[in-house]
Sequence to fold (343 residues):
Amino acid sequence: MSEDKSVPAESGLFGAVSYVQQIGTDAISSVGGLLGFAHKTPAQDELAAHNAAVASVRKDDNDDDDNDSLIEKAHLIFEEWCDTNEREDNDEAKTQYELYLEHQAQLKPVPGSPQFKFVAGWRYLQKKKYAQAMDEFMEGAAAGSPECQCELGAMHLSGLATYRRNEEAAAEYFRLAANQGLAKAQFNFALCCTNGWGVPKNESKAVQLYRAAADQGFPGAEYEMGMRYALGKGVARNESVAATWFERAASQGHAMAQTNLGIMYFEGAGVTKSIEKCLFWYRKGAKGGSATAQNNLGDMFENADGVDRDLEKAKEYYKDAALNGHTRASERLVALGGSLPSN
Fold:
């Protein structure tokens, strides 16, 4: 499970600024999105898998204008669906989900092709038939499919491939896929270089890979670039550049990036101080499940810090943060006379 963790930057023009980083992060898999990433409903995870599968088969043989329009429409439906949060209890969301599947079904990879192997493996993985999924991914990977190579890497790292974690095999598959330019594989191999998973730790290589994935618009990599510029890790510290990377990731819904952008606007670090923009990004981060954003909003409403004092709102935000394991939020909730959530 991912958590929020504050990381203080070196003191600068605005003093020490504590940014929030995501810890407990594992590798990206097309199926289920970020392995171990908290705050997604099961239904969101299910659709995220379909979204990744559609994107993954967008190859030369599916690269005409009609399919481009089809994919864009599918992504719009996906975004609208996610806003409703729960397919099971929402008829409109269910309709959007079914429409999405209709669009996805129209993209038919050639049987036996690497793209076909990826989709077949992904379907087995959805059904938790890991041995069959691995067989399909192995065939696709042997044929050079970077998507299949990346999935094998994720399976080895999570232990689904051989029922034990194999960091060396994971890193090698991520490397193969990253060398073909697959953004999520570049991100995953960067994680390996950052954490020493199957390869020696190499922050310089990690930054190179994060940047390559970020340049393709991969939100997790954009967030990581923001963290590196915010903290001066592997690059020269530059909060203005950090804010640019955070905003790119935040605009794609990355909750930790949204939270850090809120922090920067609150502190005036790397950007012009703006409580209005701070609140905007904190609320986005809070909705995305960031405990730090929820806690910080609670602080603002409790202490009238740029907003009118509203203890009821403060308690609501503290309670949300407490549910996500934020210790200080739990303490403030009790101090304000609120009750701790049972789970």
Notes: Confidence is low (pLDDT under 50) at residues 8-16, 23-47, 56-68, 85-89. The two ends are 15 Å apart (CA to CA). The first strand starts at residue 3 and ends at 8.
